[in-house]
Write a structure and sequence with these properties.
Strand content of chain A: 15-25%
Number of strands of chain B: 3
Oligomer: heterodimer
Number of domains of chain A: 1
Strand order of the largest sheet of chain A: 1-2
Largest sheet of chain B: 2 strands, antiparallel
Radius of gyration of chain B: 22 Å
CATH class of chain A: Alpha Beta
Strand order of the largest sheet of chain B: 1-2
Distance between the termini of chain A: 26 Å
Largest interface: A-B, 67 and 46 residues
Helix content of chain B: 25-40%
Structural class of chain A: alpha+beta
CATH superfamily of chain A: Glutaredoxin
Helix content of chain A: 25-40%
Order of helices and strands of chain A: HHEHEHEEEEHH
CATH architecture of chain A: 3-Layer(aba) Sandwich
Structural class of chain B: alpha+beta
Number of strands of chain A: 6
Number of domains of chain B: 1
CATH topology of chain A: Glutaredoxin
Chain lengths: 103, 85
C-alpha cells in the first residue's frame, strides 16, 4: 500500500482512483492506513464477497492474495499484477501514464 | 546437560514453531510454485462491488460503478492490515 501512496500524485494526475481492499474491518483498515501514512481509502470486504467475486480468495490464508487490478473508465481490466509482482505497482503507474488513459 | 537447559531448549523450539505458523501466509506467498493465474483476465469486465471504508468519522460506501466513465480505478487487494507491501 505504501508503494501506491508514493505514486499517488502520478496516479491522480491520470484520473486514477486508488482503492486498497482487504477482508479486515473498516476500523482496522483505517488504523492501518494511519499507521503507514496511506491517504486513499482502504475498503473493507467484510465477509469476502468482492474477494470471491474477483477470484482472489485463497483458502490457505482465509483471505485475499496480493493482487492489483487496473480498471479503465469503461469498467474493463487494463492491467493486473499478482503476488510478488504486485508489490511494485510500476506496471500500473506506467499504464496510467500512457497517453490514451490520460484523456 | 542439565535438565533445566533441556527444558529451556524445548521451550524455544515451541516458540519458534508458533512463530513459523504465524508467518505462514507470507511464507506461502514466496513459495516457488506459481499459483494459478487469476480467473479475471485483462480485457474482462471487472465485477461491480459495494464496500465500505471508515474515513475517521463515518462509514462511506464505495462502488465500482461510481467511477464508470469518470475515473480509472486501481483495486489493490492485500492479505491483511498490518502486513507489509
Amino acid at each position: 500500500m505504501k508503494n501506491f501512496q508514493q505514486n499517488l500524485k502520478k496516479l491522480e494526475a491520470t484520473d486514477t482512483q486508488v482503492l486498497g481492499v482487504s477482508m479486515d474491518s473498516p476500523f482496522a483498515n483505517k488504523a492501518f492506513a494511519d499507521q503507514i501514512g496511506v491517504t486513499f481509502p482502504l475498503l473493507s470486504d467484510w465477509g469476502g464477497e468482492a474477494t470471491h467475486k474477483y477470484g482472489v480468495y485463497v483458502d490457505e490464508y482465509k483471505a485475499a492474495r496480493r493482487i492489483n487490478f487496473l480498471i479503465g473508465k469503461d469498467g474493463k481490466i487494463l492491467e493486473e499484477q499478482v503476488d510478488k509482482d504486485a508489490i511494485d505497482p510500476k506496471k500500473i503507474v506506467d499504464a496510467c501514464e500512457r497517453p490514451k488513459l490520460k484523456s | 546437560m542439565k535438565k533445566s537447559t533441556v527444558k529451556q531448549i524445548g521451550g524455544w523450539l515451541g516458540a519458534a514453531a508458533i512463530l513459523l505458523s504465524l508467518a505462514s501466509p507470507l511464507a506461502a506467498e514466496t513459495k516457488k510454485n506459481p499459483k494459478a493465474a487469476p480467473s479475471l483476465k485483462v480485457g474482462d469486465v471487472a465485477p461491480d462491488f459495494k464496500m465500505q471504508y471508515f474515513d475517521g468519522k463515518d462509514l462511506k460506501d464505495v462502488s465500482l460503478s461510481d467511477f464508470r466513465g469518470k475515473k480509472n480505478v486501481v483495486l489493490a487487494f492485500y492479505i491483511f492490515a498490518f502486513t507489509g507491501g
